[in-house]
Amino acid sequence: MLNQLWEHRELDAKQVHEYLSRERDIALSTVQTTIERLCKKGLVDRTKVSHAFRYRPVVERETVLQRFVGAMVDQLGQGWTRPSLSNFLDMAEHMDDSALEQLEQLIQRRKAARDKPE
């Protein structure tokens, strides 16, 4: 859902649902619930326009990706198991090439920071 908002900058729930429905079977109520959760987490903002809310991302894709990778690297440092890594890679399989390249860059930066003498 965030990908759709990042791409289009502002959408209502029905528009998000329309875009997502092209890729997978998803109920409008699921889209609405998820967007509201994103609002509560501070990732998405909303404005009432007529009878519907319009949603827009509050944080940029790169920021979310940095937080995500940071959390994953922290978890790895705490002893993730092979099945956990496998699940993470399965999830990453659905990322577009740009996101995967950003992920690779972030991992390299984390490695460099870790390996840097203090």
Widest sheet, order of strands: 1-3-2
Quick check: average pLDDT? 85
The class by helix and strand makeup works out as mainly alpha
Described by the principal axes of the CA atoms, the overall outline is elongated
* Continuous helix count: 6
Description:
The chain has about 120 residues and is mainly alpha-helical. It folds into two domains: about 1-55, Winged helix-like DNA-binding domain superfamily/Winged helix DNA-binding domain (Arc Repressor Mutant, subunit A, Orthogonal Bundle); about 60-115. The chain contains six helices and three strands; from the N terminus they run H-E-H-H-E-E-H-H-H. The chain has helices spanning about 1-10, 15-20, 30-40, 60-75, 80-90, 95-115, and strands at about 10, 45-50, 50-55. It has a three-stranded antiparallel β-sheet with strand order 1-3-2. Helix 2 crosses helix 3 and helix 4 (about 60-75) crosses helix 6. It is elongated.
Question: What's this entry about, in short?
Answer:
This protein has 118 residues and is mainly alpha-helical. The protein has helices at 2-8, 13-21, 28-40, 61-77, 82-92, 97-115; strands at residues 11-12, 44-49, 52-57. Strands 1-3-2 form a three-stranded antiparallel β-sheet.
